[in-house]
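User: We ran a pulldown and think these components assemble together. Before we commit to crystallization trials, I'd like a predicted model of the whole complex to look at. Sequences follow.
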Amino acid sequence: MSEENRRLTEMIACLYGSQITRQSLESEGEPPASTAASPTSTKRSRESMETSNSGDANSNKIGTVEADHVDAQSPASDGTCQRIVMKKVCTRIDPSDTSLVVKDGYQWRKYGQKVTRDNPSPRAYFRCAFAPSCPVKKKVQRSAEDSSVLEATYEGEHNHPHPARSSNLPSCATPSGPVPCSISINSTRPTITLDLTKNGGSAQQPDLKKVCREVASPEFQAALVEQMARELTSDQKFTEALAAAILRKLPDY
DNA sequence: CGATTTTGACCCGCGC
DNA sequence: GCGCGGGTCAAAATCG
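Assistant: Here's a predicted model for the assembly, 253 residues in total across the polymer chains.
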């Protein structure tokens, strides 16, 4: 892969992630456990759940859907307000795959597993093992309704760079809805802007699990690729710049 | 032998 | 106050 291509895909991935983060999707029926980001999750105060935002959790395999839930604690009397990101990621897996592993490029260390009341499949608890001080935690559990869907809930923000950012880019670019993105390309500079706010209007996510299934379908994947290709090739400046870049990399031809 | 996973016990908040 | 349930700890087991 050329440097330019790498940069392009990286920018796509970064932009994609940040836009999704902004969508603040409300996952349906978020169970009280997920509000663990609220003060209840800090029952053991030794780990103060640090603040705010991240956009780098992404998963692998067949299809994913992300939903952010930024919980704001009620403002303290002194006016301080801690914010904790709850990011939910659905990953379609092989139903026969019993491992509760969602590969997202980060190193995770499992520290617990528990069977919860509302779901017969066990829930696994992970901490980020890449950096000892990283406060991010992850809960992974199969969907109660569809055992081929893994639901990973991320809490907090990584305080270190993504250890495998570039090698994981394709999975970053997994879609979050029915072809939600519009693409504008500025070929005068290697800059691509993905406008993911145009996802059919409402930022609400009526049925997250349904979307998970939809996203995982080959038809959807093909449609997304087709749309992206169409958008890219429809911009003459971009194709010219791409051709020039390719030619530069192939001096012998 | 160190790192990681497993798993039962424990802690703590919440509802009754 | 008590029981339930989610989350975490930590010793033992396993792995590379």
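Residues 1-62, 71-81, 166-213 of chain A have pLDDT under 50 and may be disordered. That may be worth checking against your pulldown data before setting up trials.

User: Thanks, that helps.
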